[in-house]
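ARCHIVE CARD
CATEGORY: sequence design from structure
SOURCE FIELD: tokenized fold
FIELD CONTENT:
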């Protein structure tokens, strides 16, 4: 194992303390080196999470679970149980154990702050569910919570996913059509049901959030365009590994299955594969032109991979 890999895979703990210790979990979060994947939905966030979950130093998450933990810090501790959060902790028993672990502290001192609720969640995951590994999480909307992310994890690295806006809109539309054909109710598909004007607004907000964060955190943020990832997966993942300070391992881009549902692994690693754009099949020429015109000022920034500051 290389020096770089050893540095990243340091194992300060192997299981949570018998008693909840606020100072201890704060220290653990300060030393941890997590990767958070944010940005535009439908832009490769899942591909990146699957790739980095294959790395021996990161949480080996089975499938792609968005916790929304920085947007809803108390979600793991209240009912109804949020299915993706439960899955992120590999099942209900672990989620219940997390609640039982913090309960005595909250009974004595009151409800944890938002930041400490998040710290407790990741500390528990990093010492019980994924012992000795560093946090890995992807929720596109966490781009809105970068200040909180860096408050909790000062050494965090942020991967910002972008994609040609025409292809993003087309992907939304195809995913919505599939969800509707599968009989998913409107309350579960509303986030996909956006018109062109709404999506242009999404792209504008995305760009503003990125640019607003660059002065303070740009050196810890990396723009990862979708086309760059799928055109040259090995080279792109190697470049990102250099950015986050870890050694590239070939399994990160392997297409072979890494396990089965029975052993808690993804049945297929969802390899990064090149796909031709088929936006014209679901968008009219007029819609494509409107999107391209509105987003033209941002395209160079979106399509240029690399550190943002």
């Amino acid at each position: 194992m290389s020096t770089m890999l050893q540095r990243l895979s340091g194992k300060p703990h192997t299981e949570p303390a018998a008693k909840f210790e606020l100072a201890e979990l704060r220290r653990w979060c300060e030393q941890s080196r997590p990767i958070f994947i944010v940005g535009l939905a439908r832009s490769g966030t899942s591909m990146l999470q699957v790739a980095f979950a294959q790395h021996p130093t990161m949480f080996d998450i089975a499938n792609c679970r968005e916790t929304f933990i920085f947007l809803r810090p108390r979600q793991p501790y209240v009912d109804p149980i949020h299915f993706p959060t439960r899955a992120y902790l590999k099942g209900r028993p672990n989620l219940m154990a997390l609640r039982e672990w913090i309960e005595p502290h909250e009974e004595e001192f009151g409800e944890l702050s938002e930041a400490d609720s998040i710290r407790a969640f990741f500390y528990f995951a990093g010492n019980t569910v994924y012992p000795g590994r560093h946090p890995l999480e992807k929720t596109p909307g966490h781009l809105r919570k970068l200040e909180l992310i860096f408050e909790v994890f000062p050494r965090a690295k942020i991967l910002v996913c972008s994609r040609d806006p025409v292809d993003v809109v087309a992907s939304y539309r195809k995913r919505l059509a599939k969800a509707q054909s599968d009989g998913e109710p409107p309350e579960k598909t509303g986030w996909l049901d956006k018109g062109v004007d709404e999506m242009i607004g999404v792209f504008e907000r995305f760009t503003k959030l990125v640019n607003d964060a660059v002065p303070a955190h740009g050196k810890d943020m990396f723009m990862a365009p979708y086309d760059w990832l799928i055109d040259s997966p090995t080279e792109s993942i190697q470049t990102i590994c250099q950015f986050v300070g870890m050694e590239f391992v070939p399994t990160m881009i392997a297409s072979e299955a890494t396990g089965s549902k029975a052993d808690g692994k993804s049945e297929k690693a969802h390899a990064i594969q090149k796909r031709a754009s088929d936006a014209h099949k679901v968008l009219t020429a007029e819609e494509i032109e409107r999107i391209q015109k509105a987003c033209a000022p941002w395209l160079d920034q979106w399509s240029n991979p690399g550190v943002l500051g």
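CARD ANNOTATION: The longest strand covers residues 157-162. The radius of gyration is 20 Å.
SHELF: design records, drawer C
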